[in-house]
# Entry
Amino acid sequence: MISILIVGAGKSSSYLIKYALEKTEQKQAPWHVVIADSNEQALKEKVTDYPKAEIAVLDINNDAQRQKLVKKADLVLSLMPPNLHILLAKDCLEFKKNLITSSYVSPEMRAMHQAVKDAGLMFMCEMGLDPGIDHMSASMIFDGIGKVASDIHTFHSYCGGLIAPSSDNNPWHYKFSWNPLNVLNAGKDGAHYLSKSEKIFLPYASLFENNNTINCEGVGNLAYYPNRDSLSYMDLYNQHNAKNFMRATLRHPSFCKGWDALIKMGLTDTSNKIAMDGLATWTDLLKKLLGYTDTNKGIKEFAWEQLKLKDEETKSMVEWLGIFGNNALPTNATTPGLALLGILADKWKLAPEDKDMVVMQHEVTYKHRNFCNKLTSAMVVIGEDATYSAMAKTVGLPIAILAELMVSKKVDYPKGVTIPTMAEIYRPVLARLERYGINFTETIETIEA
# Structure
């Protein structure tokens, strides 16, 4: 019997856990599944409909607990926060276990590549949504175009976890469908991308300023901001001759304006612990962050002047958060960002019946028979509710499907630390995702060169 260890029972785990346990209970696969997490309540909620499911309360930093579980497994699937994958990776290498994660390849993970390859193992990273489905769908596009056309001229890939229109009832047009701390920290390292053959770097302070928009099929106009280091994927995608290359995150246009204001107020900072010293209220914090000196003005008026903010919609959004006033700061907040997160976790919480939405869109231009063509490939997925969300579906199912393909020996998996850009992985995984309503619609038009 194949033993599969799933580590992590958070927001993105519901479909992965459901898939694995249903396969086991239907006896479609000879699997023994163990789900581990530090939160016992979250574990019990995820397995309510599966009385035979085995759960394990795990302190991920406890070597003995963690290694005992890894040692018994044949395959480890990790949905832990990005910085914790490395703990499982080291155990998997030591005990010769394959590993699949949903997160970006960290420098520490990348450094293990040769040792993992020499051990005949696969550590498949970036096997979720973005990163994950974006890599697989983009690679399929590149391989298809490569059969009939010359070099790719432009590659723009956009993805966003958003709120579905039917549940969009706050001025930010956003609710948390994945780890709130990751949302808070998104973009902190700035972004690198290629525009007209020029390498561009945008620092975090500029990332949400004056964002451009694209029209997303069936959704309308959404704003985008460049995501991380797009340039590194030119090598991974083997697209060295592109003139424009960007991976970007989608948000509602007003969200970007509001978030830019919060950045400029210093409220997204998760490193400045000194800013919290001796403060009791939100007014105290804002006065300190903004350098409040003009006692003839209220803190709100002072803030708008400091930010040179005139847009009434953005002002209204920031005010809606309730940060202006003498409300007490969270006692456990050690930085302005964590104090803000305490508010956002409540204001942007998915109600049980809320539906989220995942939007992904690739735009590729290339030459074919002396014509310049633009291919647009679009995917929209709507969640069922807060538990079985579109985010959980698109993050969890690629991992679950690859796990099934591996243990049933239907794929000859690559060795080493890798991401899913190879045809032997993306073809069967994308084909099976279509059965679950995760599919792309393509259009091709001729444009001016």
